[in-house]
Automatic annotation (TrEMBL):
This is Glycerate kinase. Belongs to the glycerate kinase type-1 family. Transmembrane segments: none annotated. SUPFAM superfamilies: Glycerate kinase I. PANTHER family: GLYCERATE KINASE. GO terms for molecular function: glycerate kinase activity. The lineage of its organism: Bacteria, Bacillati, Actinomycetota, Actinomycetes, Kitasatosporales. GO terms for biological process: organic acid phosphorylation.
Length: 382
């Protein structure tokens, strides 16, 4: 497609504005604002994206995957309804659907919360015929190293008396043997991709318990107990060989369980999801990409969706602009990351609470401003 033909074609590939709008809603409001300002001649394609964390299943559904629901064990042991997405033998599983903070309702259980339901969700995807499974991790309520998920899939994690260890990370201190021979045999012929936006190791000062445990209600004492238990668990499971691998510390160590126990391969979440969602094909005809998330900040540059979108688009020579709730990156940091410009809701409404409440209408106004500034940004950034 010629540059002239692409000039009037916009691809919206934004993540959610957490607490305000889903990725699909972000795209809807941007589309409304763009068309109101530019007229019907503007061609807009919406491709909501996610980086493996909260909203990953929603992004897959918006891209045409089928929603499947199943009752599984929640992080506190109670039944919950969890969804995954399925299309043509590929399943997108979001661990937060089964084992996420959203299921705690204020009742933290840092020592005992379990990923058992995530294993049940993976098994449901296998039952539905999936032979490629993208496991998105993030928003977890757990710090059990994925032990619960392994157990749900057939592993036997036993204490010195031959009794299965209890749920949660703290119980792993009593682990004596890990028998993986009973794991679901379908896993051997399934491609399992660990999609994560973090590359923390399992243990230590940058590990699952130390970095993310406090977000799940863990005290300093809890963190020490969990970190030691996870180190012992890794020593039993694989001699600690993969405890330091990138992504091992993701989702309370579920990343480690997937890598060491299920043979998963780690990939940055946004890279995986862009492939699964069809971003490369959509980019072919785009003259401009609009991406974004709730807060465009230093964390954005470390594997978050907008940075991944910008990198992929820049590699194809397509200009990218960003929209966000608030912006704390310098102009130089934006340029280095591949963003030509960035627009924040706080430019229009300085009160953060009102920004969250009025995010949709404010996004439409930002879209109109983008049109006024000129949709087709020149390669020089002028």
């Amino acid at each position: 497609m010629s540059d002239a033909a692409r000039a009037g074609r916009v691809l919206i590939a934004a993540d959610k504005f957490k607490g305000s709008l889903t990725a699909a809603q972000v795209a809807e409001h941007l589309t409304t604002g763009l068309r109101a300002a530019a007229g019907p001649g503007l061609h807009v394609t919406a491709l909501p994206v996610a980086d493996g964390g909260d909203g990953t299943v929603d992004a897959a559904l918006a891209a045409g995957f089928e929603r499947r629901e199943v009752r599984v064990t929640g992080p506190l042991g109670e039944p919950v309804t969890a969804a995954y997405a399925l299309r043509a033998g590929t399943a997108v599983v979001e661990m937060a659907e089964a084992s996420g903070l959203r299921h705690l309702r204020g009742s933290f259980a840092p020592r005992t919360a379990t990923t058992y339901g995530t294993g049940e969700l993976l098994r449901a995807a296998l039952d539905a015929g999936a032979r490629t499974v993208v496991l998105g991790v993030g928003g977890s309520a757990t710090t059990d190293g994925g032990a619960g998920a392994l157990s749900a899939l057939g592993a036997r994690l036993l204490d010195a008396t031959g009794t299965p260890v209890g749920p949660g990370g703290a119980a792993l201190a009593g682990l004596a043997t890990a028998d993986l021979t009973g794991l679901d045999p379908r896993l051997r012929s399934t491609r399992l991709v660990l999609a994560s936006d973090v590359d923390n190791p399992l243990t230590g000062p940058h590990g699952a318990a130390a970095v993310y445990g406090p977000q799940k209600g863990a005290s300093a004492a809890d963190v020490a107990v969990l970190d030691a238990a996870l180190a012992h668990y890794a020593a039993v499971l694989d001699g600690g060989a993969l405890a330091g691998a990138p992504g091992a510390g993701a989702a309370g160590g579920l990343g480690y369980g997937a890598l060491a126990g299920l043979g998963a391969a780690f990939r940055p979440g946004i890279e995986v999801m862009l492939d699964v969602l069809g971003f490369p094909a959509a980019l072919e005809s785009a003259g401009l990409v609009i991406t974004g998330e709730g807060s465009l900040d230093a964390q954005t540059l470390h594997g978050k969706a907008p940075a991944g979108v910008a990198a992929a688009a820049r590699a194809r020579g397509v200009p990218v602009i960003a929209v966000c709730g608030r912006l704390s990156l310098s102009a130089e940091a934006l340029r280095t990351a591949g963003f030509r410009r960035a627009y924040a809701l706080t430019d229009l409404e300085p009160d953060p609470a009102r920004c969250m409440t009025l995010a949709g209408p404010l996004l439409e106004r930002l879209a109109e401003r983008i049109v006024v500034d000129g949709l087709r940004i020149s390669p020089s950034g002028a």
